[in-house]
Amino acid sequence: MPLKAIAFDAYGTLFDVYSVSSLVEDLFPGKGPQLATIWRDKQIEYTRLRTLCDKYADFWQVTGDALDYACAALGLELTPGSRDRLMGQYAELSAFPENAEQLLRLKNAGITLSILSNGTPWMLDQAIKASGLEGYFEHVLSVDAVKRFKTAPEAYQMGPDALGCDAKEILFVSSNCWDICGATWFGYRTIWLNRYGLPLDRLGVNPHRIGSSLQDVADFALEPNT
Amino acid sequence: MPLKAIAFDAYGTLFDVYSVSSLVEDLFPGKGPQLATIWRDKQIEYTRLRTLCDKYADFWQVTGDALDYACAALGLELTPGSRDRLMGQYAELSAFPENAEQLLRLKNAGITLSILSNGTPWMLDQAIKASGLEGYFEHVLSVDAVKRFKTAPEAYQMGPDALGCDAKEILFVSSNCWDICGATWFGYRTIWLNRYGLPLDRLGVNPHRIGSSLQDVADFALEPNT
Predict the structure, then answer these.
(1) Does A197 contact chain B (CB < 8 Å)?
(2) Residue B138 CB: number of other CB atoms within 10 A?
(3) Do A49 and B48 touch (CB under 8 A)?
(4) Could you tell me which residues are beta bridge partners of residue A211?
(5) Distance from first CA to last CA of chain A, Å, rounded?
(6) Distance (Å) from the alpha carbon of B16 to chain A's nearest alpha carbon
(7) Are residues B80 and B102 in the same domain?
(8) What is the pLDDT of residue A1?
(9) Over the stretch A44-74, which tens digit does the pLDDT of each residue have?
(10) Separation between Cα atoms, residue B131 and residue B140, nearest integer Å
(11) Whether residue A27 sits in one domain with residue A83
């Protein structure tokens, strides 16, 4: 079945969530990587707990809650000013350096590009603008419309609904292995962008391909047999 | 409304999941605490992902999968013999030292005691026997009956169903803050056993009480106004 479209995860996949680390390090010397890691882990944990319990709060709220937790866990005092700076930085994460060139290759080949993210519409809009990725994506889909975070099926269903094709005609791209497992279970064709050289999660499901950058994604999508 | 029963979480609450650390340290010197932490974190992560995606596998399977991942993440070779020893240890975790005395206080006061756990019936049976806690619990409830892990409402619903009373007449006890948040959202009266001095999770929900050992639980349950 030919590939009709690509759906990209945003956070960690297109935008570097750890690009906040240097500001964190400025504000809390010696704590940058550790705080950034707890912040990210808690953010993801809260999306899952809220979805499991049907207690949705949007990704901006969850991101702030996770930051508050991370600072408390490390015994760091988060002043309102520092909180605003960190959240402001989160709204304008860096894109990975190869993105624009590879997205252009895909777009020029006539493939419909989209984003399917836990982020709010506002956050996604800001991040796209701040990272210079405007104009590449025909659809920017936020789970805020269904009030359930990935990996809930209702979130993944937004892709086929918006793109007007079957999940198996869509290549789903994420650097988050859990997201790839969820998307594969749902029925997407999948490529795991293993940016950090991690082992595959042991969930009894495998992505269709594994790569390490958006160039691998573009190479795979543009292969004659894909 | 008077308290009619208590539902205890098992792993981390009655049984010390980190009691595997010394065997881990014997098998992988210098890696004990780190491996035990990744093992536990992945185990919990996999329960959530499988529940969100309706891909249930039981807690024994998930525990083994998480161990495999943790070893891979640390670049450690897990031989079949070491795997069997670690899983065997997991089946016979230590109880926390104060448990028996405090459970006896509660039982003698006529309060119905139960367990509501992600573990399989077999795992719970083994852990209760190995830690000398036989005879205290009238109900040992495993989410295996509903094929959804906590914090899914279907899992928490097992308590009221088995105990024949309303969730708010049951005191739910867990050392896992996420479990306490889920149980409070569900409608239980809750006490968070904060065994490790962690900050409260930022989920917009608070336990009714916070303690640090089963003695605090018994004290609270036996207060005249509880």
Answers:
(1) no
(2) 13
(3) yes
(4) A193
(5) 8
(6) 21
(7) no
(8) 64
(9) 999 999 999 999 999 999 999 999 999 999 9
(10) 15
(11) yes
Q: Based on the domain organization, do B136 and B52 belong to the same domain?
A: no
B22 and B9 together in one domain: no
Q: How far apart are CA B71 and CA A22, in angstroms?
A: 30
Angle at alpha carbon of residue B49, lines to A86 and B35, rounded to 5°? 75
Domain residue limits at B36: 17-90
CA torsion angle for A216, A219, A220, A225 (degrees, to 10)? -160
Does residue B9 carry a catalytic annotation? yes
A129-165 per-position pLDDT tens digit: 999 999 999 999 999 999 999 999 999 999 999 999 9
Q: Let me know: does B214 contact B98? Beta carbons within 8 Å.
A: yes
Any chain B CB within 8 A of the CB of A46? Answer: yes
Asked if the model's pLDDT at residue A20 lies above 90, the reply is no
Is the same domain home to A70 and A119? no
ipTM: 0.96
Q: Across the A/B interface, how many CB contacts are shorter than 8 Å?
A: 88
* Catalytic residue set of A: 9
In sign, the C-alpha dihedral spanning A33, A35, A40, A42 is positive
Same-domain pairing of B154 and B173: yes
> Which stretches does DSSP call E strand in chain B?
5-8, 112-117, 139-142, 170-174, 189-193, 209-211
> Based on the domain organization, do A199 and A142 belong to the same domain?
yes
Query: What is the number of domains present in chain A?
Result: 2
Note whether A29 contacts B: Cβ–Cβ < 8 A: no
Question: Minimal Cα distance from B46: which residue of A?
Answer: A203
* Closest to A127 in 3D by CA, of A40, A118, A26, A50: A118
Neighbours of A86 (CB within 10 A): 24
Indicate which of A37, A52, A185 best probes the interface with B, i.e. most B CBs within 10 Å of its own CB: A52
CATH of the domain at B41: 1.10.150.240
The per-residue pLDDT for range B31-67, each reduced to its tens digit, is 988 999 999 999 999 999 999 999 999 999 999 999 9
Q: Which of B46, B182, B198 is opposite residue A73, by nearest beta carbon?
A: B198
What's the gap in Å between the CA of A12 and the closest CA on chain B? 18
- Do B159 and B215 reside in the same domain of the chain? yes
CA pair distance B132, B1, nearest whole angstrom: 33
pLDDT at B226 over 80: no
Which amino acid type is present at position B9? D
Give pLDDT, residue A70.
97
Taking an 8 Å cut-off on Cβ atoms, the answer to whether B46 and A201 are in contact is yes
Q: Give backbone dihedrals phi and psi of A54, rounded to 5 degrees, phi first.
A: 55, 45
